[in-house]
């Protein structure tokens, strides 16, 4: 047994790599068109992804995804593609976190007392105190849906 001889990739390792590339291809097929246009892809791979979107048959779609996986193996540097996908995932996580933050503030304002309102105004000084009080009051009375309060909070928190 020689320690200085580099180990070749085992068949299992190559198969895992091929499956990983095929999974990236599946993610690319599911991306919205606007995001897909931002991913650096060659024309053959892009056309294969567009073709896969139009397929309805399970078997045909599976074969097309395998073809996309084969094309992905010919890409020299997969890093830019993976970086674009990671950026989209991070953006999605941020928007979900922002949405939950807005929901929490809305719920706290509707169920809470004046201290919650003061805490919100301290954290978001651009808020119009009167308008916020009115929206909270309406939400408590259920005169208007919580959507108005949510939209107002969203406009403040997105800026802040």
Describe this structure in words.
- This protein has 160 residues and is mainly α.
- The chain folds into two domains: 11-76, PSPTO4464-like domains (Diphtheria Toxin Repressor, domain 2, Orthogonal Bundle); 91-159, Diphtheria Toxin Repressor, domain 2.
- Helices cover 77% and strands 0% of the residues.
- The chain has eight helices and no strands.
- The chain has helices at 11-30, 33-36, 43-54, 58-74, 79-111, 114-123, 129-141, 146-159.
- The radius of gyration is 25 Å and the shape is elongated.
CATH homologous superfamily of the largest domain - what is it?
A: PSPTO4464-like domains
Would you identify the regions where 5 or more consecutive residues have pLDDT less than 50?
A: none
Nearest-angstrom radius of gyration? 25 Å
> Could you say how many structural domains there are in total?
2
Q: What gap, in angstroms, lies between the N and C termini?
A: 63 Å
Oligomer: single chain
Number of helices: 8
Strands, count? 0
Kindly state the percentage of residues in helix: over 70%
| Mean of all residue-level pLDDT scores | 85
How much of the sequence is in beta strands? under 5%
Largest sheet: none
Helical/strand content category: mainly alpha
Order of helices and strands: HHHHHHHH
The CATH topology label of the largest domain is Diphtheria Toxin Repressor, domain 2
Shape: elongated
- What is the CATH class of the largest domain? Mainly Alpha
* CATH architectural category of the largest domain: Orthogonal Bundle
């Amino acid at each position: 047994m020689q320690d200085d001889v580099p180990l070749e990739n085992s068949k299992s390792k190559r198969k895992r790599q091929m499956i990983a590339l095929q999974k990236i291809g599946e993610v690319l097929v599911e991306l919205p068109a606007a995001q897909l246009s931002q991913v650096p892809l060659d024309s053959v791979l892009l056309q294969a992804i567009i073709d896969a979107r139009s397929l309805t048959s399970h078997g045909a779609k599976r074969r097309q995804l395998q073809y996309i996986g084969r094309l992905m193996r010919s890409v020299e540097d997969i890093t830019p593609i993976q970086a674009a996908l990671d950026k989209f995932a991070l953006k999605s996580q941020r928007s979900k976190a922002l949405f939950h933050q807005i929901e929490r503030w809305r719920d706290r304002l509707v169920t809470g007392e004046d201290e919650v309102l003061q805490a919100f105004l301290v954290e978001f000084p651009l808020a119009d105190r009167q308008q916020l009080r009115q929206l909270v009051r309406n939400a408590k009375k259920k005169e208007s849906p919580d959507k108005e309060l949510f939209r107002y909070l969203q406009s403040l928190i997105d800026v802040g």
